[in-house]
Structure prediction request, 48 residues.
Amino acid sequence: MKKLRKCPVCGEYTLKLVHCAPTVSAYPPKYSPEDKYGEYRRRAKEEL
Ligand SMILES: [Zn+2]
Prediction:
């Protein structure tokens, strides 16, 4: 099973290594306190 990746530019989920720019893993390697802030950022973005 291929790992889902995410484009940091347009936010699209993709299996490609490059979309608008090199993609990043959609899954964090492990939970860290920083993810909490990422969650807040995502929520803030959704509310805009
Ligand atoms: Zn893209």
